[in-house]
Task: structure prediction
Amino acid sequence: MEKEQALLRFLYPPDTLEKIIAIVSRFPRMPFLSIVTGSGWGEVVEGRTLEVFSYQDFGISFRREVEGHSGVVRLVEKDDTPVLVFEGRLHLYQGYRYEEVVLPVVFSFLSGVKVLLLTNAAGSLHREIPPGNLCLLTDQVDFTFVPDPPVFQKKPLFSAELRDLACRVAQTKDFPLFQGIYVGVLGPSFETPAEIRMLAHFGQVIGMSTVKEVKTATNLGLPVCGLSLVTNWGSGIASLPLSHQEVLETSLRSKRLMQEFTGAFIQEVARAWRS
Result:
């Protein structure tokens, strides 16, 4: 715990941490699991809302520049399991500082959650993984070229136990579930066909988030699971032009898949971690 506290003191002034602790102290129930939602993943957790607040409540001026990110944080009761849901991601390319980007992870840690689920919208780097499917993340490559805090000592890690659990959920629900390495880039532009061909040597899906959050979660000792909705082909794989609208449209078509998988994942995590 000493290393975790040192990390928090390095990233944040005391008043930021105090604001988070004050919000958590007002929760009617303490969250068991936390979900940070990527583009199109907002409102995938169905259940009774216990508490709603915003990023502004703990000091972040949320900019609604990216469609599909509301900036609302909800405490939801799903099948008697309290879940903290961050409906809106903070991206480095928007100009947010490192400590702002990873604040949902830190908030989750301070609220005492047992498991963190990071979701995102990602492009496919290979024809074997078509849009409209889920991809379970096994590892990551950080191509943002944004330096990490020197207090980070642990290498980023996706929990093998949570990956196994996600695979069981997919098998039980008869959902296709791909697995692969996530390549994180800074963005905000889509890559060129030449860049996609290069990056395909490093992973299976590509996006503009997640990698810094995974590193922070690992260094705080939070078990983390990463899940991508594949929303588009990488440049040059298909002939159609790329757009954020395509990302949102694919997410909308896949909403039921995302809701059912996430709901079953929450149930399985609650059962496994409480037993």
Remarks:
- The chain has one domain: 2-274.
- The two ends are 24 Å apart (CA to CA).
- The longest helix spans residues 255-274.
